Amino acid sequence: MIKHSPCITLIALLNIVSLRAVDNAHFYTAPLFLQSYDEPRLAEPWLTTFEAYIAAGGTNESRRKCPDDSLLNLCGFHNMHVLGSGVPNKDHTNELDALLLMLEMLPGRDDFGMLKFKGDFNMVEGSFWFTQNFACGFFGQINVPFRHLEIECIKSGSKLIYTDESPTDAGFPNAQTIEWQAFLNSFEAILERYNLCVDNVHRTDIGDISFLLGWTINYEQTKVLDYIDATVRAGVLAPTGHRTDQDRPFDLATGHDGHVGIPLSVDVATGAYEWLTMGAHFDALIFLNDTRDIRLKTDKDQNGFIKLAKGRTKIDRGTLFSFVTYLKADHALRGFSAWVGYTYNHKQADTLTPCDSCLFPPDVANSDCLRQGWKMHTLHFMAEYDFSKKNMCIGPRVAVFYNWQVGGKHVFQTSNGGGMIGIDIGWQF
What we know:
The chain is mainly beta.
């Protein structure tokens, strides 16, 4: 029999309410199905739950409307033809700036000036959950994620890897046009002049720590169904993850890029036949505005990750919505349970307000495809074995899962798989 100290309870409560959100959905990988977040919470007073998830995946493809789906052409080929167009403070006497000016003066044609960057993406992510029930259905949660993110094949040694998509026929301009060839020969020097480092990505860091307070109810006074469970949560997402390095065009944030978030969620589930569970989860992660120096488009025809100009900008980050639905065979065979689920994620577009609207017109800045939001569809498959026994106050669990991304727009085509270990502790006085 485990005794629960009032001091321990007080310390846990103070830690939980000191901050309160959940970092799971990102454009570069399928989200995890999280039992601690996507399912209603059991209302047992003072129940404690620890869970740890680990997942890995990789891809070299993205999802977009155009035929080419290589990883880094998320919004199409990178338009170098107008790379320098509208960039403030260019020096006409500087050889590299002069190349940009001569290039942008050439007429547009087909895919002239377009570069195709490939890339191989690999990731490993983990998620630690601590959930503590209190009395009357209230509980608190803390989630600590971490991620290791890689994009290879952007650079080999000191040489950038790309494909010139410019036309090779006799038309003008084409792949052999003198100004274009001069630009390609000085491409890396131009990037260096504007403090850009285009390189492979290797990033290992914590994600955004999430804190939640919730209330749950388990209603069993039904005649047809076994039960109806419902949970509501609200919290704060602390921006502890790595922000995107504005001087590394292909860098990835390990959280939500330094933005504070306010999460709201609702879960419902119902049981039938003493083994079948049907459930749904909905959440909205609302981000607070922030002002910072970021890379901005200076011409509507610019496209891709590489931008030369940087300016102070107010960022109104778009809300991230998630909807989850699932079927669960709950302890269908002794301690064995299985899930099949579906998640739809929709990140709305960001709104950028440059502080200097003369140098950076808002309509140009907001035409950036990479700021236009994204959508993702994922199927989840999960199997778990619960080692709990009747009258046991400690119940360990293990699970394996696979998250299959089946559709989306402006996302990396990354599925992932992994495992989970969990333990439930029922405190008794």
